[in-house]
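quick one, 621 residues, struct below
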Amino acid sequence: MQNSDIVEVKGTPNADWKWPCYEEWFSRETFRLERRKKGKSDQQDSPFKIIYSVNRDTLQKTFVEFGFQSLIVILQNIIPDNSSIFDKKPKINAQDLYHVMEKLCIKNAELEKTSNLTDEKMYLNSLIKFLEQEYEETDKLRTRMFNNNVVSFDMLWVVYTKKLPVFYTCKMSGQWLCGIISSAYESFDHRIQQRVFFINIKVIDYDGVGFKHCNINRKIGYFEGEVDFTALPVMPTQFCKVKNQLTKIIAENGKKFFELASGRHFKNYNGSLLRWKVVANCLQVEKMNADGRAMIDLESFAVMNPDYNMGNSLPPNKCDVELLANNGVYLEKDKIHNENNYLLAPAVVYGFSFALKEWGQFEVSKFMDIQFDKEALDYLVIPQNKKNIIKGLVKQYVEPNKMIKGNGLDLIRKKGDGCILLCYGPPGTGKTLTAESVAEFLERPLWMLSVHELGTDPKALERQLVKILDIAYAWKSVLLLDEADIYLEKRNTTDLNRNMMVGIFLRLLEYYQGVLFLTTNRVVNFDDAIRSRISVFLQYPKFSLNERHEVWTNFIRRAGLSLKADDFIKYELNGREIRNVVNIAQKLAQDSGEDLNADLVINIIETVQGFQQEMDECKNI
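---
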């Protein structure tokens, strides 16, 4: 700004000087702002003018336009964040000046004591006098409303000021959060033809690079009369009746957010998976019960959901990271962990629910550590030599010091380094349970896949499988592809689509470096090339009498039932059917509060077998 651009008022100050007032509007005839003077003024060039602006939304705003250089310099020091004060002819919203009335009065008192500049003193005093007259009723209303913890829509601008701590609700979880107002203003919503009040709130979030300062926006819709502050979606903390309790909860959850948001964390979750969903062209929050295990991983979420609106959490482009860092957006690492930052944290993190096999957002307050079942492999009813082979193969993937040194046996690096196990045999013989038990033994996630997630279109299969294999390896998870027949069948000269699927699957399988279980009920149609990709083939025949006895014993013991396996081993049930029978028996025992007898369990077995017999008869028709 050049000093020559400012109209410098000359002449002896007049103690009775009255600021000139103008009406301003946008003319649809001339397509420009028009002004008309209100009242009389003897002075053409004034230290400041009052502009009453009315726009087409019928929102009247009052501005102060300055033409006195010394007064402008004073205001530049008091409201440096207001960019308008550095314009050629500064035009400042009078509400912004009202918010700094205390600072203006302090500066005026300093001038009275120390300055001989008569012009400065008089015009600053005149500005204060205007603000006092303009907002005399506002001050009275403010005092009354604050005493009664209520506010009207017209008074929102008085309350919601910059740097004010507020509580607001999370759009995803509905929980109360804390933030600091960075700006607030009234506007007109043409869609609903109504006034609205917008509030920008300073918070902290994580974007995959670091924890950063950012803003979220909230709005308060128009309302009649006066309402309690607690009824508004954004509430000044000073008017909250349970401020201390709420602050404590928010700080505790914020600390959890700072612990969980960065990196990858495998946790148990007891709550709902949350995500945005478009319903009738409107965004709505979809909630699904997601009790079970989950992986918190923002970066993988962004990879798998490129079109999802992640807001401030969206990982930035590489070219933007340096710019953000240079602008001081990111928190310094040694200043991250303190309660002031915890209070500004979100309530949710991004990740994957293994129970639902869905990506979404999770409430930080509902995570717990996982209690792994280290004895799961011991309960697996397969020959001990098979258990030893499985343990020996998979342990190297969690114990780096036991990894074979060197470049491997393949000439091409990272080729053939994975642990691929193919489990084949009839249903209910322990194939899936083997993968589950290995995941428990390794204390790793079990990621179960099916044709539904991967699809049968070759191009889509390759895109999806590449992402999944990369993420699964990063998570050190145990992958389980159940009923993988469609990707392993022998290629032929007629079905080109299937040939492409099999080729893609085998190629990606060869370069996977993690633990992968494939299960199938049949092996007769497998492609010849599958043999070279599999580390171990594990056969699961039907249970012998002794094996069935062991399965019954294991399930009865784990369910805490006072039953004997000898009473049931004559029934030719597979492992899945035995588990279902014991599960039903356990629920009946819990409901009755008494021990169950063998006869009731046998009734359950015969019901299961009766249905199976009907199915077998239908197949033979």
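DSSP finds 21 helices and 24 strands in the chain.
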